[in-house]
């Protein structure tokens, strides 16, 4: 059998096929070598510098360093929000072989981390790559040493020291200062909704931003500027060294100075005890707020590292609402502290202050009897005595001569129904009833009754004594008292004194008051009699015991609900069904310097028994801290006379004589008011209890 053979018709055909394949493969090879050579030339010659930089960036990384937060001081330089050193342990997800195993080992060193394991894993997974995530802060020295001892056996775990926010006075400044907390998704979203790009530092797991109060209002100023540490990393991204020369230090946040006084603030929270309410103290001369406290309070230090849910729920659900700032957010009926406003409106309407109204214990209007707090009545009352004795009947009888719109206008001139630029947003504006207000309210609520938006004169009676729909805040009451005391300027409050060394405008830079000095003197004389006349409603509770320095003030007890035929609030054992107690005052009465407004929510008794004594103690602290007032208290008595006295010398130091119309004969002795209530009508009214 013969072997197969290949037969070429052309002797050159085999040789030509080989040459074509060789040329094609050789051409492709040449092109590949040329492309590779060109690319190597581009990388090593043309782009050499660019790739050198990229290689360096792979070797060295920048890690953002949170800046120290700016400190907050009071008017005397006392730190009320600062920073303190804190040991903490951190975990870097990308440096751990097994996160669960690492957390198990860490749990043997720090057992309490096991309780927060789920939240730790959530934070670690949400953090950027190679970003350290705090697992536990405020380690004691024993815990810190233990973690460092076993650090080599815990890949991705490190311990360091950083600056944590600290509030040295705890709850005294909790509401006005606020607190700091971790950045949430809601914070990022709100920044983007405002058309801004969130700074990179906000994604750092250890960074904190302001929550509430001044911390939130001035967060950008207090935040500072983030720095960067240039660290050398290995191929796995682990830190092996630090380039100190090329690192950038963080810039400290700006220093903020407030007008508050730490001693006054602490004393105010102390005198509240277990009661709920708010207090504001202002400097009458320039509007500086020396005290703005809300009670009960809470410790803001709990929120810095994250407050446990059970603690937060307890604070949130407590009926006295410790998380609510009652000085500027909580609104209450002003009660009889509003009567000075009504008196000014009556004077503006042309009412003669010497005109007398006979108080027999109530005032009949239509088919309803409006009771005065004193069942037997006060007898004949002019304006001075009506303020001094807090006679409801006097204001019932005359209020419609001024009308609700005039009362509302005077109230706004005195500071009610206003929001003030003190640096904290979200203040309650309160409510100031008027004919327009009621019409707007009926329209908003789509009331079906055709007369729902009509104002009736009978409704003015409740407004005249600070009841009905009227609501105000402690800050607004303090502004009212400051303006009455100053008399010439519409003083506005100031809380932030300076930011970064730049002074903020004074509250004295305000417009003039629209009231005559004569009218203001009548009202101030009534307030002086409240606190210093032995028959005044706050005489016992208003004696400062500081030499010749005396207060001028006004008590108030505001009804918190319609009692129907039941008993009044202060006698009710249930806290939520008691009346509110109020007191406003300024001192010294002969040269006003400081004004105070204090509200106790659901007080045990009333304005004179609960609010006035507390306001007196706070005012004493304010006066004793003033060098001029202390010098006045400590000045020596005048020398004994050695010869006949002149008329002026004989009257030196005597109380000014207030000419009053003769009191009615045989008026009944003061006594506690019995439970009082309106006979008919849908709205609650104010029946002032004994002061």
Automatic annotation (TrEMBL):
SUPFAM superfamilies per the UniProt record, alphabetical: beta-lactamase/transpeptidase-like, Penicillin binding protein dimerisation domain
Signal peptide: none
Leading EC class: hydrolase
Protein name: Penicillin-binding protein 2
Main subcellular location of this protein, as a coarse class: membrane
Composition bias, Low complexity: 654-680
Location of the protein in the cell: Cell membrane; Membrane
